[in-house]
Amino acid sequence: MRGWEKVGSSRSNLGRAGSTVTTNRITSTVRLGRVEPQAPGHRNIFCNDREANFLVRFKGNSISTTKYNVLTFLPKGLFEQFRRVANLYFLTISILSTTPISPVSPITNVVPLSLVLLVSLIKEAFEDWKRFQNDMAINNASIDVLQGQKWVEIPWKKLQVGDIVKVKQDGFFPADLLFLASTNADGVCYIETANLDGETNLKIRKALEKTWDYLTPDKASEFKGEIQCEQPNNSLYTFTGNLIIQKQTIPLTPNQVLLRNFVLSVMLEKRMPRALEYCNGEKGCSLRNTEYIVGAVIFTGHETKVMMNSMNVPSKRSTLERKLDKLILTLFGALFLMCLIGAIGSAIFINRKYFYLGLTADVEDQFNPNNRFMVFILTFLTLITLYSTIIPISLYVSIEMIKFIQSTQFINKDLHMYHAETNTPASARTSNLNEELGQVEYIFSDKTGTLTRNLMEFFKCSIGGEVYGTGLTEIERGAAQRSGGNVGKAQKSPGLIHEKGFNFDDARLMCGAWRNEPNPDTCKEFFRCLAICHTVLPEGEESPEKITYQAASPDEAALVTAAKIFGFFFYRRTPTMVHVRESHVEKMGKVEDMSYEILNVLEFNSTRKRQSVVCRYPNGRIVLYCKGADTVIYERLADVGNELKNITREHLEQFGSAGLRTLCLAYRDLSSSLYESWNEKFIQAKSSLRDREKKVDEVAELIEKELTLIGCTAIEDKLQEGVPSCIETLSRAGIKIWVLTGDKMETAINIAYACSLINNDMKQFIISSETNEIRDAEDRGDQVEVARIIKDSVKKDLKKYLEEAQHYLRTVSGPKLALIIDGKCLMYALDPSLRAMLLNLSLNCTSVVCCRVSPLQKAQVASLVKKGARKITLSIGDGANDVSMIQAAHVGVGISGLEGMQAVMASDFAIAQFRFLSDLLLVHGRWSYHRICKVITYFFYKNLTFTLTQFWFNFQTGFSGQRFYDDWFQSLYNVIFTALPVVILGLFDKDVSAKLSKMYPELYKEGIRNAFFKKRVVGIWAFFSFYQSLVFYYFVSTSSSTSQNSGKMFGLWDVSTMAFTCAVVTVNLRLLLMCNSITKWHYVSVGGSILAWFLFIFVYSGFLIPRDQNNEFFVIYVLMSTIYFYLTLLLVPIAALFGDFVFQGVQRWFFPYDYQIVQEIHRHEPEHSSRMELLEIGPPLTPDEARSYAIAQLPREKSRHTGFAFDSPGYESFFASQAGVYVPQKAWDVARRASMMRSRPKLPPKS
């Protein structure tokens, strides 16, 4: 019980600790969400001894992901809001409006600013409250901790470093633990890490043999070990430490470390809701197939590896948003110019000759003719407050709201992008980049798991220089068809075995027939290498029919499955042994169980590109089996058997040409003395606390040499469904697709052919390091010479191909171009001296394939086009090696497939299949771009129109800064009277339907050209703002200047109220003119906004407000008692909108956009979209999915040329159809409605 009496006090102290202390020094704090350099030294942890650890003051296990607390919410929240330039601008205007120089009441600017801030702060508070609830749920989750000699349940937040904990089956780990003991034999436990490293299979973790007995409470209470380990860091796959127990120092590896639940931590870090509910599901549980384990806590809370690793995705801003900033700056310039004109005019106008102005000697400074400079300055400031409405305060809030709804309601719920087989919908992880999807010009794609299915099947192999396997791949069939050959149906061998991971057809190796081959001993080594050299875990009954394999990758599972079918059945693994049931080895039909002692495992990683196992046969033979990429295996082969090397190299190229993934297999016999001397160095390297990984790799190099080549394997990874047609569609849309893969050049080229990325009509530029000159240099071993030769070769090729490309582009009917380059050449091509040539050549090519590239090179290529060409880019991938590329592009898309969640976690959008990219870009991306452009230009138009009427009024007031509109009019114009229609426009406007968007992918090019947000488009809107403001002011003021029959004249507030009424009606009706489709929500929002104005003015004019001058009292009632009001309300909007109407008609008929041509082509075609066709046959839907699908079945509002959307359910149409009444669909097109005498009714869709 020692130390437990102080749980309360120690916990509170630990919670306040600001530093992590080792025995000798204080280290810097590791802050949440930021990776900081690891502090020098190491930490000492005393297991099961809270008193000793209390002195060190390790951090507690409580997690806090909230941005605010009660005290910081208001100041920090307001600070976040005022970081936006627009909000800061309106804060400045609001302050100015409280000064005597302001012509308007402070409410004019304070009210709209307060409403915007209130909405934003409520949203922030709601999101932070959700985070707080998640924090509390996680911190209060229970865990069994050893106290004395019994397990006691305590909350996670009370857990401390050094505690001994018990984690039960299907539970998840509350902190980073040192694995001590398990209920499974030999101290083994199984964990699922699919959401950590992307691997869907179970992983094995093995406790140290010294700690196997510490399983029960009485035995665990005797454990008094000391852990010396690294300081907290964010490296998920490494761990350096030693366990000192019973005066013996034992090295610790990542194999003994159990990491805190990754999904839970990431969801909290990303501020994702329902984190706890998610982790209670299947995906969140970490411990599997194990009753319970016992572990010691080594890292807690924010110092756990996953919490330090789960940084936020870099914040991205769309290109359109950056252009919006420029538009805002332009409006600032216009505001400055208007104020400058007014200030100069006021300084000139002020004169005492205007005696009726009362400009006496004691007049205020703003109107003192004796100090015209002061008049200029004060009038300038006055006009800034008066014209402040030119900047739309509600623009950012409206756009955020529109984007959020587009993401959550349209993209996430699109059944076209729902994959029923894996029950995976599309997911917009950010709403900032919706419109960016509509302007993508370059796509960078991974191959494996992105273009292909990542379902590996053993297809062919080469053993001892002989090729086995008679099948034809999809790519070989496609190549034969392209060359005009006739590929018949393949003849299958009788008794062909086909199971998951195995699609091999060659009777020479089946059922022991390999014994009759010329090289049976090599075949035996080949099969044993497959059965022994791996980290696969067998599950289920130990029979070939019922066993299942959990592998680190689909490739490994396929290789072990192949060994099983060839007669070398791997059926059991212990921490030190691999058991294989071998058939037909000694003689045909004989089955023998063999046990191989695993002495060492040299793990695979992206740097080594190989995996080795040192094993001891029952007869004492020690063998190193190695498998890996051909490039690294060939470098380590013994200098004998060159003929076999050359033959196998030809086979590798043959397999690569067929689109197969290849691995080379080799072995080396080791003497006992050689192994013992090497193993001492290996143990020493593994015990090092500094640079352990580097030292282990260096020691591995000592034994992974002088290998004997056995052969190679060829695995087929088939294309995903719909990939070729999707790529063809995207290419027609003007999008250029680059494939960046780690595969061999031959494989990459053939995959590109199969995907329709490359065809025989293209001129191919190939830059490869596999030339005779480069190979000869590599054989000589002079790395400096090799680098020089490769760089010279790359420079020569780039220069030659660039000249050819420019020549082809100058010809009228030149072929399309394709560039293929490998990783070695790319490394030199990315050199600053050659980068410009590479970029120019690449941009002239329709397709680019980069093979044998590293994750870093993928990111460099994406950045090259993004920054060098200033084109909008999209990266798509499915694995952890694609994360850097995904984050480097403008838009990152993750494939939520078989490689887990790391790519998805780093992405902006997630989809289940590559083919869904066409819907994401051509439908949602194009719609979003079109809508956001309209929203921005409409905001620009309505605010400029409103402000210019005030500007014209000042010409008749001597530029004095007299306001034309009442304060409340100016305050509510943006936030009430014109707010809702523009949101409806941004949500529901569609130029063409989803079906037509994909039928005519060329429509997407309008987004690439930025056709809807050019300077010309903004200039046209500005012109009509200028025109309409003149109509509002001069038509109303001139028409009201004559006296009524009674002899009475309209006053200022009568005229301004009339002008404001016309402005509200006109700008709302103008929105309907720019809509391509109109739903009931358009009618409700536009009619509701106009109605809101009349309700407001009726109430506002009907009450005598207690102030010095009640401007609006009874004004509307006086106006509406005259015929003038109704004539003006009818004629002024018509006059104002006449120019827009004529312009739109002329533009549509004589200078149409592409989408308008498509509209005319399909103007009379009703759309028949059966939603049942959208959902694939798959597993039963959950209640939520069933409900979403049922809602999707409801009839939708449709127009003649827009078709279905995910916009507004047609409830009135639905209820009418239930009553047996047909409701005609609503069409809207300005020019067409003007030219059609009557609309031809549509027939109801056929059932």
Give an overview in words:
The chain has 1247 residues and is of the alpha+beta class. The protein has a 9-stranded mixed sheet, sandwiched between helices. The radius of gyration is 37 Å and the shape is elongated. The model is unreliable at 1-39, 195-199, 262-285, 1168-1180 and 1189-1247 (pLDDT under 50). Its main location: membrane. Mg(2+) binds at residues 446, 448, 878, 882.
Give the CA-based shape: elongated
Question: What kind of oligomer do you see?
Answer: single chain
Biggest sheet details: 9 strands, mixed
Q: Provide the residue-averaged pLDDT.
A: 80
Q: Structural class, please?
A: alpha+beta
Q: Helix fraction?
A: 40-55%
Evaluate the radius of gyration: 37 Å
Low-pLDDT segments, ≥5 res: 1-39, 195-199, 262-285, 1168-1180, 1189-1247
Given the structure, what is the number of helices? 43
In which order are the strands of the major sheet placed?
Answer: 16-35-34-33-17-29-32-31-30
CA-to-CA gap between the ends?
75 Å
Q: How many E-type strands?
A: 35
What fraction of the residues are assigned to beta strands by DSSP? 15-25%
Region (Disordered): 1-20
GO biological process, one term: Golgi vesicle budding
Active site: 446 (4-aspartylphosphate intermediate)
EC number: 7.6.2.1
